[in-house]
């Protein structure tokens, strides 16, 4: 591959990284702009979950909770509670849900840059 092509590819990846970082610009990173599927498939991947939590994947974490999460609204309601933050704190490397998401966004951005 020519150096110009490598530079172009890197530039494109850097231009797209804002999609991952923009949600973190607010004082408190909220999931309101990110849906359940994105969280499960792009951010909290099985690799991430095994590295940072007691769970093999995000679905396992949800099943272990007392929450009934079958749709986007139930998911958003659950993650806004202190009970959800406690689940994260007791079963992961993170103090709360927002910290977990921030690290997951950075992890995803890093993966995308190195691909």
Features:
115 residues, mainly alpha, 8 helices, 0% strand, elongated
Description:
- It is a single chain.
- 66% of the residues lie in helices and 0% in strands.
- It is mainly alpha-helical and 115 residues long.
- The protein has one domain.
- The relative contact order is 0.16.
- The model has no long low-confidence stretch (mean pLDDT 82).
Q: How many helical stretches?
A: 8
Structural class: mainly alpha
How would you spell out the order of helices and strands?
HHHHHHHH
* Major β-sheet annotation: none
Question: What is the mean predicted local confidence, pLDDT?
Answer: 82
Query: What is the domain total for the residues?
Result: 1
Computed CA radius of gyration, to the nearest angstrom: 16 Å
Distance separating the two termini: 15 Å
Shape field: elongated
Unreliable residue stretches: none
Strand content: under 5%
Q: Percent of residues in helical segments? A: 55-70%
DSSP summary, beta strand count: 0
Secondary structure layout plus pairing:
Blueprint: H1 3-16, H2 18-21, H3 36-43, H4 46-52, H5 58-64, H6 72-79, H7 82-91, H8 97-114
What is this entry, summarized?
The protein is mostly helical and 115 residues long. The chain contains 8 helices and no strands.
């Amino acid at each position: 591959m020519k150096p110009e092509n490598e530079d172009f590819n890197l530039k494109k990846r850097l231009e797209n990284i804002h999609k991952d970082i923009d949600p973190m610009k607010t004082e408190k990173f909220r999931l309101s702009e990110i849906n359940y599927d994105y969280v499960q498939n792009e951010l909290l991947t099985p690799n991430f979950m095994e590295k940072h939590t007691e769970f093999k994947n995000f679905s396992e974490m949800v099943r272990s909770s007392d929450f009934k999460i079958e749709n986007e609204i139930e998911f958003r309601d659950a993650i806004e509670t202190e009970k959800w933050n406690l689940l994260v704190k007791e079963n992961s490397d993170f103090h709360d849900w927002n910290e977990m998401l921030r690290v997951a966004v950075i992890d995803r951005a890093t993966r995308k840059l190195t691909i």
